[in-house]
Design brief:
binds FE-MO-S cluster; four-stranded parallel sheet; 22 helices; six-stranded mixed sheet; alpha/beta; 14 strands
């Protein structure tokens, strides 16, 4: 392993990329090369990044499955829908509160089914003779016990393989109950290349089955939907605190701390603010097409980004009182942020980070690190699409492959009665002429420095290689990566679950994050750890094809 002895200063990003690929068989190396980009540098095989493609079999990916994206990510945080996993017990068990999406069920009459794990617990005989009867019985049992507002059914892999018609069962039970909406998701784990497919399946169904169900007027002068915010570690609570302080009403969060009625009332908002572009941008489009609600991209990760997002919302409404209130709130919140920055920055300035998270955090969290004077040397998404890397302008050129074709595209038209443009085309044009951008997202790549590494669907082997060569001061990813990285002597912060921390969104969240990262990158404990390859440098192995 002579190459690993090479000093960091001698490594260019192109060297690092070559080293990450060096041990792969040629075909694998070629495929991975198209998913690793040296930012803005020549010498990449293609100017674009290859994303949303199948993981190479045998590679230990960081990704999850389609069922995880549907049941866990999108529907998981909604407290008053009973979520039944139709399948063997393992799928239900492993999706049972494994994500730290918090909820506040303290309101009057609030139901919270999130602590429960509902599963049809399919056995061999159900796989052989079909599981529809068992599913029907499970829905009936859940209804009798809880009388929920809605019951959702999620298909696991075997359900698709044996062909249970879960939608027919759902329709039958919905008609039978009359006062409980029942709908099902064909979100078998294998349906797509990652959990991203599951987001799409979930969102399409919520849009067609729930959004628009409640036409009751909602109070509030400035009404928005917050799309793609999942209240991990209480992020959504902090964002709601700030919005409320500004006088902005959040009609529906998709789907952190949400309820059935929030989705049902989403068409009553006058603006959609999109946090996580990957998981939900198409819902923002559908809300605009069907009901006339424009959308903008926001980011509440980072104090400056939070201020910027609030100003953007205020600018959209164009109300002098709201604008003044937003400025007051920012002026009230920033002194604490600045005080903590001034304290930590001498210790964090110039430190180096790497971020590999699902589909938006690897971008958003770069703002927080920048506020601390830290540099992001490498970043990437597990399952984002090219538009999340390169910007929405690439959407018309995205290849529709067999895997994307698996996911139903729903056709949406303007609602005959309820479509109402929130702003006249002149007002929209005036805002745009003043530099305001609707439906706009530039993606992660333009925000990253020249000669940084952008890696899609990073795997365990490449993660270890990167850390071994570049030795960042902190590595951010998920639980599957946590201990292998820490064993290399580098602090590891989970940016999915936040370990046990958070919130990190908004102003107070930024303060929490600065303190946590300061603690991690300046802790000496990691320096005492010796990686196996440091203690036994003679330890090496070869691959069978060598
Ligand atoms: Fe969006 Fe998410 Fe993310 Fe995501 Fe996720 Fe998540 Fe994530 Mo884990 S919806 S893409 S599927 S911001 S669960 S709250 S942290 S991978 S970067």
């Amino acid at each position: 392993m002579a190459s690993t002895a090479k000093k960091l200063v001698n490594w260019t990003p192109t060297d690092v990329k070559a080293e990450m690929l060096a041990k792969y068989p040629p075909k694998v190396a070629r495929k991975r090369a198209s998913q690793i980009l040296v930012n803005e540098a020549l010498g990449n095989e293609t100017p674009e990044i290859s994303a949303n493609v199948r993981t190479i079999p045998g590679i230990i990916t960081m990704r999850g499955c389609t069922y995880a994206g549907c049941k866990g990510v999108i529907l998981g945080p909604t407290r008053d829908i009973v979520n039944i996993t139709h399948g063997p017990i393992g799928c239900g068990f492993y999706s049972w509160l494994t994500r730290r999406n918090q909820t506040d069920a303290s309101g009057e009459g609030d139901e919270n089914f999130m602590p429960y794990c509902f599963s049809t617990d399919m056995q061999d005989q159900d796989i052989i003779f079909g599981g529809e009867k068992k599913l029907e019985a499970a829905i009936q049992e859940a209804y009798d016990l809880f009388h929920p507002r809605a019951i959702a059914v999620f298909a696991t892999c075997p359900v698709g393989l044996i062909g249970d018609d879960i939608h027919a069962v759902a329709r039958k039970m919905k008609a039978k109950f009359g006062d409980c909406n029942v709908f099902a998701f064909s979100c078998e784990g294998y349906k797509g290349v990652s959990q991203s497919a599951g987001h799409h399946i979930a969102n399409n169904k919520i849009f067609s089955e729930v959004v628009g169900e409640n036409d009751a007027e909602k109070p509030g002068k400035f009404k928005i939907n917050l799309l793609g915010e999942y209240n991990i570690g209480g992020d959504g609570f902090e964002i709601d605190r700030i919005l409320k302080k500004c006088g902005i009403t959040n009609i529906a969060t998709f789907s952190g701390n949400s309820t059935y009625d929030q989705f049902a009332s989403a068409h009553k908002a006058d603006l959609s603010a999109v946090m996580c572009h990957r998981s939900i941008n198409y819902v923002a489009d559908m809300l605009e097409t069907k009901f006339g609600i424009p959308w903008i991209k926001v980011n509440f990760i980072g104090a400056k980004s939070t201020a910027k997002s609030l100003r953007k919302i205020a600018e959209y409404f164009g109300d002098p009182e709201l604008t003044a209130r937003v400025e007051e709130v920012i002026a009230e919140e920033m002194p604490l942020v600045e005080e903590v920055i001034a304290d930590v920055r001498p210790r964090t300035e110039g430190k180096k980070a790497m971020l590999f998270v699902g589909g938006s955090r690897a971008h958003h969290y770069q703002d927080l690190f920048a506020e601390m004077g830290m540099k992001t040397l490498a970043a990437g998404y597990e399952f984002a699409h090219r538009d999340d890397y390169e910007g929405r302008q690439v959407i018309p050129d995205l290849k529709v492959d067999a895997d994307s074709r698996n996911i139903e595209e729903i056709h949406v038209e303007a609602d005959e009665k309820r479509y109402a443009p929130r702003k006249s085309s002149e007002e929209m044009a005036r805002l745009e002429a003043a530099g305001f951008r609707f439906k706009h997202y530039d993606g992660l790549i333009p925000d990253m420095d020249h000669q940084t590494l952008v890696v899609d669907d990073l795997n365990q082997y490449e993660a270890e290689k990167l850390v071994e060569i570049v030795r960042p001061d902190i590595f951010c990813a998920g639980i599957k990566e946590k201990f292998s990285i820490q064993k290399l002597g580098v602090p590891m912060k989970q940016l999915h679950s936040y370990d046990s921390g958070g919130p990190y969104a908004g102003f107070q969240g930024a303060v929490n994050f600065y303190k946590e990262i300061d603690r991690l990158v300046n802790s000496r404990v990691w320096g005492y750890m010796k990686a196996p390859w440091q203690e036994n440098p003679e330890l090496s192995a070869t691959y069978v094809w060598e």
